[in-house]
Amino acid sequence: MVGFAENYAAGLRTGLHAHPRAQLLYAVSGVMRVETPSVAYVVPPTTALFLAANVPHSVTMDGPVAMRELFLREDAVARAAIRTAVIVVSPLLRELILAACAEPLDWALSGRGYHLTELALGEIARATPLPLGLPMPRDPRLCRVVLALRGSPSDLRGLDELAVMAGASSRTLARLFRAETGLGFRQWRQQMRMTEALNALVTGATPTRAAAIAGFASQPAFGAAFRSLFGMTPGQARSVDKTFGTAAIEGQARKRGNPETRQDPQDCGPAG
Known about the structure:
By secondary structure, this protein is an alpha+beta fold. It has two domains: 2-130, Jelly Rolls (Sandwich), CATH 2.60.120.810; 149-158 and 178-253, Homeodomain-like (Arc Repressor Mutant, subunit A, Orthogonal Bundle), CATH 1.10.10. It contains eleven helices and eight strands. The protein has helices spanning 74-80, 91-101, 112-126, 140-151, 159-166, 170-181, 185-202, 207-213, 219-230, 234-238, 247-253, and strands at 2-8, 22-35, 39-43, 47-51, 58-72, 85-88, 129-130, 133-135. Strands 1, 2, 3, 4, 5, 6, 7 and 8 form an eight-stranded antiparallel β-sheet that branches. β2 (22-35) and β3 form a beta hairpin. The longest helix has 18 residues, at 185-202. The chain starts with a strand and ends in a 19-residue tail after the last helix.
């Protein structure tokens, strides 16, 4: 395991690339948007994205980002027993990531780097996954719809209206959504909206603003839907300590099951 540290300007985008080793992408500050061929991830502060080796991806910086990441060999990944997912970064894992980034690339097997690796793998293995991966379609008609909705999460248009833009019937769009993302249209849109709402909350937005982003006129209704998906209230998400991680999110989200992500190839390019 080796660490890598770099600061990036707001709006910077890496372009599509892949790494021969698995990686854990974490930002001390700022939000990363990571696109793979089949899933779009939002990685707010206090979370990290574990990405398997050789997965093509691009990273867009949503504001200035202080990135700290770990690269893991195949045997280390097997020990951590983790698959591609956004996970909660505990206070301990945060400090281990920062410490690993300060270590030389060739650390001694009997030295500090070894002990940091052992502890980090244990923390990664027990980390709570969060449903912050949005399955993406490949059909160009669905891509037009997806890009429009991601650009304006509170867009209230239904499938009948979106079908005009897509150049397909609403029935065709509904079928394609289910076939290509594994989710119905309403479920996909709600997950997308809630992901954007969580992102807004952990970066300082009020619950009222987050509810508007998610397309809710009623804050109680937004709160109920938010808690149903993430296992915590909007207020708990907003009170996350962005400096030392979030034990609150970990404790609440641990009640949720592992989010499933699809890994089939597709041709729908990332938004932005």
